[in-house]
Amino acid sequence: MQKKWWHEKIAYQIYPKSFMDGNGDGIGDLAGIIEKLDYLKELGIDIVWLSPVYQSPFVDQGYDISDYYSIAEEFGTMEDFDRLLEEAKKRNIDIIMDLVINHCSDRHEWFQKALAEPDGEYGEYFYFEKGKDGNPPSNYRSYFGGSAWEKVPGTDKYYLHMFAKEQPDLNWENPVVRQKLFDMVNWWLEKGIAGFRIDAIINIKKDLNFPDFEPDGPDGLCACTKMVEQAEGIGEFLGELKENTFAPHDAFTVGEVFNMKEDALEEFVGDNGYFSSMFDFAPHILSMGKNGWYDAKDINFAQWKKAIIDSQLNCQGKAYLANIIENHDEPRGASRYLPAHARNKEGVKMLGTVSLLLRGIPFLYQGQEIGMTNCRMSDISEYDDIDTRNQYQTALDAGFSKEEALKICYKYSRDNARTPMQWSSEENAGFTGGRPWMKVNDNYKEINVKDQQGDKNSVLSYYKKLIALRKSPEWKDVFVYGEFVPEFEESDNVFAYWRISGEKKALILANFGMEKETLKLSACAKEILLCNRERAGNLKVKDCIELEPSEVLVLRMEA
Hints:
The chain has 559 residues and is of the alpha/beta class. It has 18 helices and 22 strands. The chain has 3 domains: 11-103 and 174-381 and 416-460, Glycosidases (TIM Barrel, Alpha-Beta Barrel); 109-160, Alpha-Beta Complex (Oligo-1,6-glucosidase, domain 2); 482-557, Golgi alpha-mannosidase II (Immunoglobulin-like), CATH 2.60.40. α6 packs parallel to α8 and α13 runs parallel beside α17. The two termini are 24 Å apart.
């Protein structure tokens, strides 16, 4: 594969509303992010992805954009954003924005004009379709539940919204819409950002016949993704987007891509793909329930390991994926991917090692580097997320008690990752001097940045060493470009793999089990490059090694 400028980078996602409050109003903001840039630099971060900071009513936490050219007043001003770019550049940190172009907010000027004149110019900016016999045009269920069609007041038409009804889908079939979106993308790139994370992009291509499908739930509806999966021609849109925006700026782009056709990997993210990279959601998909969170399955270690290995082997030599443990749409990895006995400091270090040394660009999420966990809420009213509230109701409708439904939300809610960043053991975890917009996790006195900065054995200190190893001149080529080769695949408890570049070989060994594991090595181990537990002296045994539960080792192996 061609070497790209971003291959060697470490990326970090910031959820601005919960990262750091700079003005004391209880909401994170751009000033707070600027305040913590030195922290990110010391951690080893090269790229910062900002979840949406555009003007928005925040029905879906900023993913409903009412003005693509303005900063939400909750976060500051455009002058604050320019200062963020300037201060980040001083520290050699690139900023990438969230690009939400499948839909906008119903408060956007375009949609307001469309409602005022549904048959006029702006009606063609969206999907306004006539109903059938007094019903919506088709039986699609939106991602957030309920019909994906909303009646246009005073007409026999409905508009399509694959997410919330306040997020109408933009009509990509309209060349005027496409050009206006391209102009906006170029405006931000010319301002100096390095690229974009592209939200829900697979949804931009619709089957314009909007056919009904067999219902897949008790509500008589079917997932809107069924229509997306059969739509043809998305490549034309994505190719046009790339050529008119990303390519001329050599921008780094990472796509949120679900429902991609099996043979389309290189088309999307190969050397000449539509995007630089896309997130590897193979582990995430394992816990998707058929009817929602209430029938989602706990992560099975063997399936999880296989999903990662298969994905790594499938992409090798073809594409360079973005590897994640968690993000703003996922529960915390420490509470999700670790077995119960490993949900401790050493287990968190082990999980981070396995993820960051895979082939691909690592994306950390705020708080991952200190081992933040899911947050237990006492009532559904403490959740802010629209999807969580819908899933809670879905569980109740399926016969679960309030206590059971709340327990389900504790395991799967997106708000688990959206609680305020835990900076210190002071009030509100040092996030704000005001009243935080969302509950702070009760464990902030045990898990926070300040305490971990002064502890050489902390999760944070370990992450710094882990990132430094991946970026070190001696091992960079191995961990960035080296071949991925699985090892001990037959083991029920061990996740192990090689990273190999020429004569240099590293072996990563991680014990996710409850018992000690003795492993017979196929080559001699020469040096411990990194370990999450104290090990006295050098390796004494050349052909066998013992791994304690929740122990991970990174070994330099004999050439």
